[in-house]
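Box 3.1 A note on notation
Throughout this textbook, protein chains are presented in two layers. The first layer is the amino acid sequence; the second is a token string describing backbone geometry. Keep the layers aligned when reading.
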Amino acid sequence: MIIDSHCHIDFKDFDHDRTQVINRAASANIKKIIVPGVMKNTWKNIKSCCDEFSGLYPCYGLHPYFISNHLPLHLKNLKTWIDKNKPVAVGECGLDFFIKNLDINLQSFYFEQQLDIALEFNLPVVTHARKSTEAVIKAIKKRPGLRGMIHSYSGSYEQALQLIKLGFYLSFGGPVTYEKSTRLRKLVQKLPLEYILVETDAPDQPVANANNKRNEPLFILDVIHSIADLHNTNNEHIEKITSKNTSELFNL
């Protein structure tokens, strides 16, 4: 079995063919998909998708991209929603220092509040860290016992080791399939497989062989193949160990 550890299957990009996308994935043995939330107004649709399709698992959170849409009240709403609907994780939350017009202090406020919510509910956290890995590590270090994943990891090897020591998994998707991504590929090659997850981040981050297409869970097969090549092993081994890692993190 293969698990896509991060896919926005609830997005409107899939409204016209969501069932077919999920069926294509299932036919390729991709039987479970983790679906992260990004804004308060997405949580209801995520719940509906996960109720409709078996093998979909919800997360609820407030993404830094949409910082202008978040209100402090939404943090209270998040706690209530989590308590009622029992997701597998809090998120997608995090810090994005790549986009310059996103208020860093406001991002930090919502991020750290969500880390505290994850601890309160004893849930893992799905973390977005773009050009912000050091700040993310600093926030995690303040919260012993916190666990989770860094989605589409792009930090350094040394930072990766720190995160692993702190109880976090590192997830990789489409970017690892590009030959030109030499730094990322060397990083993945060095990391122990026991701490690696695979994802698509669909509909974003397409794989090299489908660069002009909308991304979807089926294309996680390319991610698995690339990681297998980098570790000089076979696809089945990567499927088995990443599914085990994902199942353990999200208590599937």
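The domain at 2-250 is CATH 3.20.20.140 (TIM Barrel). The chain has one domain: 2-250.
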